[in-house]
UniProtKB/TrEMBL annotation:
It comes from Streptomyces wedmorensis. Belongs to the NmrA-type oxidoreductase family. PANTHER family: NITROGEN METABOLITE REPRESSION PROTEIN NMRA FAMILY MEMBER, NMRA LIKE REDOX SENSOR 1-RELATED. Keywords: NADP. This is SDR family oxidoreductase.
Amino acid sequence: MSSEIPMRVAVVGATGFQGAAVARLLAERLHRVRAMTRRPEADRPPLPGAVFVAGDLGRPAEVRRFFEGTTHAFVTMPLVYESERVETYAWNVAEAALKAGTVRLVFNANTRIPLGPTDIAAFETRRLAERVLRDSGVPLVVIRPPVYLDNLFSPWNGPALVDEGVLSYPLPESARTAWLSHRGLAEAAFAALTREGLEGRTFDIGGARSLTGGELAAAFGRGLGRAVRYEELDPVAFEHGLARVLGGAAAAGVAGIYHYMASGADPLLMADDDGVSTEVLALDPPPVEEWVARQPWQVWATDADEPDASPHH
């Protein structure tokens, strides 16, 4: 399999931040991208080079129609954490991919997943989707990212960071985390789609570096040229804030990851991958301070005009 041969890629989740990053990279490298969406045209993100196809993951015929004529697929599930719905979505994707003769499907689990079972829907529904896709026989590669740096460039973090030098996030200060950007995810996804001999493998992507909260704040300080301190955000407060944006069910699903991390049950769940993704997927993210230095943080200053956050988070 060669990255030089044009692919026709079905991207499920392209209207979300992670899927959009993958779709943009694929289009930049002159591969054809089909993006499935339920959103009206006016509410779609700018994805030059991508063709939008209306469809719903819960409707098998629409998913099959979306996959027609494609050679590869990248899949990120929506923020849905009901087991039956996720299982249905996964089976619809698997059957459509098999019918289309998909050469390889890359599934982005959207999170690391603990080895043993938990009562956290964000983990268990993604574990379920992985199992469905794998059992279907579709040529599969699974990537499990840690936490995204892009989450920190947001209305919830930006103002306090710019005005007060405070970086707050709902992870314990001591939790070593391999922070990854959406662009880093896209690079890993591209390698997972194109490199030979990866079918059947699962990768905890993120690279070979991980940081505690204090080390993350220090890296932000270097990138911003000012002192920055880390504050642990209460996962309950985080969930309440998220609910105002995503709704209660989705917020509870997302926040479940952070409640689990706060419990201390698996403190290294989001840590580095011992260099496996660096070696196999050629994923070597730049230092955090370099990512920080490239972001237009001043849009979050209290004296700035009201920003449009949607392209950045």
